Amino acid sequence: MPIFTLAVKSILNRKLTVSMTIFSIALSILLLLGVERLRHDARESFTNTISGTDLIVGARSGQVQLLLYSIFRIGNPTNNVSWKSYQDLKSHPLVEWTVPLSLGDSHKGFRVLGTNQDYFTHYRYAAERTLVFATGHPFSAIQEAVIGADVATQLNYSIGQEIILAHGTGEVSFTKHADQPFKVVGILKKTGTPVDRTVHVSLESIEAIHAGWQEGSPPSPVLKRLLKKTSKPLQPKTITAALVGLKSPIATFKVQRFINEYPEEPLLAALPGVALQELWDTMAIAQQALLAISIMVVLVGICGMATAILTSLNERRREMAILRSVGAKPWHIFLLLIGEAFIVMVLAVVLGLAALYIVQLIGRPIIENEWGLYLPTKLPSLNEYILLGCALLAGVLAGIIPAYRAYRYSLADGMTIRS
Amino acid sequence: MISSEPSSVEYAVQINNLSFGWRTGLPLINLQSLNITKGAKVFIKGASGSGKSTLLSLIGGVLLPQTGSISVLGQSFNQLTSAKRDRFRADHIGFIFQMFNLIPYLTAMENVLLPCNFSKKRRLSLLEKNKTLKDEAERLLHYLDLPMNLWQRPATELSVGQQQRVAVARALIGGPELVIADEPTSALDTERRNAFMELLLKECQHQNTTLVFVSHDPTLQCHFDRQIDLEQINLLSTAGA
User: Fold this and answer.
1) ipTM rounded to 2 decimals
2) Does the N-terminal or the C-terminal CB of chain A have fewer CB atoms within 10 Å?
3) Highest mean pLDDT: which of A49-63, A356-370, B22-36?
4) What's A68-126 look like in SS3?
């Protein structure tokens, strides 16, 4: 197509200005794709926080709240679940397994989770991935702890490290369980989930360090000595929440109803997928704003292109008159300028896409180390293709403005050379 | 319908009672009759403002007269849509302008070949004579004395005289029946002007092309078979009054 070749040659003649336009649109495309990809990957990583669990059970509140404190370790539970209720749940015929979760203590800002060994076998994240030990093994005795990857790297802990837990969950805590230090026996591999920021101990350990505590204050030395003599089994009276696996997914609603209608205390059973979706939706506004901003940046780039082409028209009126004299129709002139917008947009899209992959290749190890967010280098998704297509279309549509103007010019000027 | 072989007609340009003005009610040109025979070399003299560029646009079919008729090579423009007139122009008419005739971002060679991109007829007429487009462009450039090392250079690197010769080659490629030249020599000095005129006329003769040459410079009129003073035939001209 000769008009297209002409458009290419015309662009080559104005390399510098056109490449600046292409560059600015490519950057905006990079931003758009980057935001879209981050949104997608963040969502993926977010929904990957827990998998393989059929129900999360806690005291009755909202399902988002339950999810936040039990899985994301954000905020505090309103109430606990009694040990008896937990035992009833555990012995329900449709329940395959349960994992108790007990929260409330912390270590240097990291939450402490009291649980049992089942946690390491049943907790799943992403596509059914289990927790893997980088070094060490699960806790087996009181005052042994397993720490997440972030805890280990940020506090520079290794196996054998003695740690002291603090009562309460604040960053700075004044009441510490200083009398009963824990020993790190295992360090988990990075998961990209809140597990990385958790110190895991056994339920019995939690019970032991709180033995004799009343109304949130430590026991007196006298009481402590007394306690040591009367060694009761360290059975917790309450837990914070429980993860439940069922024998068959078909049973989900049946068990959920059983829990929600449990007569002895108000409980709530949440479906992790549904709760995650609800939580994600509450954050949707922020991401949509981010996407909207990046779309606007692309539009700004496109407006810049249309302006640049419009400005060039005056000095190109001679060129258009010459083309008319050798037989070009005004329609050809229109195509020439639309062609220019199209070429600019295609180059910008390709460049922006290339930049995205370069940024991803460079940024991937950093992001993976820092946030445990694994960003796979994948081909553009359908969504991304749609975004790119829309950008291309918007660019070509914006190109109509200068192209139509040139069309009018060349109708009016004919072969008369004006400049 | 465009007849591609208007050979039965002896006139290249036929104008009757034509009037045109950029704004209605304010005519600029009013010609009773102007006939240019095929193969003629016609000099049209006119000072600037006498409406000669408008006349050339009318002959080129870019503009249509408000009244009267104009036909070129036997084809009346009044009945053609603007797209068909564009096509007719591409097929049958070559133009040479005053200066800066060339597309700056194309090479000399690409400029010469430009009309062939828009006219299938001009392309085919060369192929029928067993000439490739490139061969013919080279022949014309060679004939017009453009140094071979400049053929693939961008038009902007050529001197004004060289650019005008490239413009002649472009107007003539594919053998259009009519060539319209609008002050093509005004940017050239006397010596190069004569050389340019000689080349232009010789090639038009060779291709049996009708040449309509417009200039305000009376010293050039000796090269032509026929001289027309636009101010005399334009009934609206104020320059002669």
Assistant:
1) 0.83
2) N
3) A49-63
4) HHHCCCCCCCCCCEEHHHHHHHHCCCCEEEEEEEEEEEEECCEEEEEECCHHHHHCEEC
